[in-house]
């Protein structure tokens, strides 16, 4: 008799899944508290640098969302792209990308848009999208996929930022893309360098 293998759930992408769960819990807390937790923890705006919460919000704003549509729009893309990137670059590197994106977008928004609150994982989404275009990078070559993604996504954000006035932070998207592209280049360059060194040994 052949034994049937039992199917089981696999926590295949710890950083992406943890990020998703935390965003979901932050969304629930925001609903329960009537927006208080988003204001205190999960959005970034001009406040005293002497307050520990200000520094927490530099990172925490990527966890908050204004509503379910906002949440699902960002998380769906993160769940599609993120696990593949975590498998390629490792959990620690992907966590660094998320933290770096949060800090970069949070600080810039803090400085240049003092009267407006920023929240949401859209900057992380754009960082992962640009990062994913580096998955097939070769030494000394820029992938055509990266060029196309950069032109389409970043060009769209520049156009909307200039000609369309809405509530979407186009600067956040652009900064997220820049962070993802820059870290993708660095990580792939380091990987290629280490690979070359290992072959010479």
Major β-sheet, in short?
Answer: none
SSE sequence, one letter per element: HHHHHHHH
Q: Architecture in CATH?
A: Up-down Bundle
Superfamily (CATH H level) name: Rhomboid-like
CATH first level: which class? Answer: Mainly Alpha
Tell me the number of strands: 0
Distance between the termini: 50 Å
Helix- and strand-based class? mainly alpha
Low confidence ranges: none
**CATH topology assignment:** Rhomboid-like fold
Given the C-alpha coordinates, what overall shape results? globular
Number of helices: 8
Measured on Cα atoms, how large is the radius of gyration? 19 Å
- Overall tally of domains: 1
> What is the percentage of strand-forming residues?
under 5%
Q: Features of this protein?
A:
Rhomboid-like fold, 8 helices, single chain, 201 residues, mainly alpha
Characterization of the model:
- The chain is mostly helical and 201 residues long.
- The protein has helices at 14-32, 36-40, 52-60, 68-89, 91-112, 122-132, 144-163, 170-200.
- It has a single domain (14-200), classed as Rhomboid-like fold (Up-down Bundle), CATH 1.20.1540.
- Helix 6 runs antiparallel to helix 7 (144-163).
């Amino acid at each position: 008799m052949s034994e049937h293998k039992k199917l089981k759930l696999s926590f295949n992408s710890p950083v992406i899944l943890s990020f998703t769960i935390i965003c979901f819990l932050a969304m629930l807390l925001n609903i329960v508290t009537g927006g208080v937790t988003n204001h205190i923890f999960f959005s970034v705006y001009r406040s005293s640098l002497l307050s520990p919460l200000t520094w927490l919000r530099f990172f925490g704003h990527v966890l908050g969302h204004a509503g379910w549509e906002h949440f699902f729009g960002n998380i769906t893309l993160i769940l599609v792209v993120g696990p593949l990137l975590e498998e390629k670059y490792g959990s620690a590197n992907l966590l660094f990308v998320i933290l770096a994106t949060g800090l970069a977008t949070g600080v810039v928004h803090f400085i240049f848009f003092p009267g407006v609150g920023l929240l949401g994982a859209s900057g992380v989404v754009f960082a992962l999208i640009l990062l994913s275009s580096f998955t097939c990078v070769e030494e000394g070559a820029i992938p055509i996929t990266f060029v196309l993604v950069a032109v389409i996504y970043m060009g769209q954000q520049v156009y909307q930022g200039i000609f369309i006035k809405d509530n979407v932070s186009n600067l956040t998207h652009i900064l997220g893309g820049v962070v993802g592209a820059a870290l993708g280049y660095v990580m792939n360059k380091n990987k290629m360098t280490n690979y070359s060194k290992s072959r010479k040994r």
